[in-house]
Amino acid sequence: MNRRRKGRKRIIWLVVLAVVVIAAVLIVMRGRRGETNGERRTVEVETGSIVEKALAVGSIVPRNEISVKSKVSGVVNKIYKEPGERVEQGEPLLEIKPDPTPLELAQAKREVEMNEIVLKNAKKAYERSQELLPKGWISDKEFEQAERDYEQAELTLQMSRERLALIEEGSVNIAGRMIEGVIKAPITGYVLEKNVNIGDPVVPLTSYQAGTVLMTIADMDSLVFKGTVDEIDVGKLSLDMPATIKIGALPDAKIPGTLEKISLKANEENNTRMFPVEISIDDPSIALLRAGYSANADIIINEAESVLTIPERVVYFQNDSVYVKVTGPDGGERVVPIETGLSDAITIEVRSGLEEGQEVLEKPQKKL
């Protein structure tokens, strides 16, 4: 009885061991098949389009943006236009009220008084020379000098009076040209920015100082894209290339443009050399554009339509040869030389060597 029990137990253990071995073999074979299938994944040769493009990163800016400044000093007395409002050329924007210091006002008045005295004396000398010249008591040169002194004294007095009028009233007419404290719009456009408030002091624009920027005006009907392109791509660019502008704030808008400027000098940004470019906007009515929108532009370098394409990742580049791998009749790999064309770094054009619908093997995945 004991021998029979021992024999049955041995048979049971052998059966269990056999089941475990068979299960392990199946798992290993299934895993190998999975690896084989993973290595032999394929992609199909398709007909499609490829666009080679260069990326420009920048923003939307007005083509013509003007900083409005004053030619007279003082303080802001009135503001007629606010940011966002449209103005026509010649419309008033602000009014500058003279605000001279007591010393400046006193000096201007005393200067007028002194020049009046100088003119009075010069006039007497000139009238006296007119009487003496016919009698031969003075020379022609002395007469001409008296005449010049008189004319110069008149001009000096006029200038001092004009300066006093500017200081006191904020306006004066000089040679038919009105200079006043009312600042008018130099162009037709929109007020983008107001830099002063009522009561703020204003430094005038002169030949030796920049002056206070009062407002910024731009023609929003004429906008451009200004950005930079990597030095790797700039050599492929040429003027009049088409471009597509994409604005981050308007994800659905694709605005057509034309490349119109390529800088001859690069700027260094984060240890990378970037070349400034400018793209005109062909149709600004596609979307409501605002100055300062950040944007990217795809500049179309080359384009191929209705060509055979495959993912560039399945292509092998070795020395001067280019090839892919396909499944051979025996189920193994077969090398097929191909001729490639245009590439956008993701998809590549196949000019010869493959046919539409043909299956190409993916490259084996490296195990970590």
Mind summarizing the main beta sheet? 6 strands, antiparallel, barrel
State the helical fraction. Answer: 25-40%
Low-pLDDT parts are 31-38
Order of helices and strands: HEEEEEEHHEEEEEEEHEEEEEEEEEEE
Oligomeric state of shown chains: single chain
Structural class: alpha+beta
Walkthrough of the structure:
By secondary structure, the protein is an alpha+beta fold. Helices cover 29% and strands 40% of the residues. The chain contains four helices and 24 strands. A six-stranded antiparallel β-barrel has the order 2-13-17-15-14-18. A four-stranded antiparallel β-sheet has the order 3-12-10-5, with no helix packed on it. It is elongated.
Helices, strands, pairings?
Elements lengths: L1 H38 L2 E3 L1 E17 L2 E4 L5 E6 L6 E2 L4 E6 L4 H34 L4 H30 L1 E4 L2 E4 L1 E3 L4 E6 L6 E2 L12 E4 L4 E8 H4 L7 E6 L2 E13 L4 E3 L2 E10 L12 E18 L4 E3 L2 E7 L5 E5 L1 E5 L3 E6 L6 E3 L7
Antiparallel strand pairs: 1-24, 2-13, 2-18, 3-12, 4-6, 4-11, 5-10, 6-9, 7-8, 10-12, 13-17, 14-15, 14-18, 15-17, 16-17, 18-23, 19-20, 20-21, 22-23
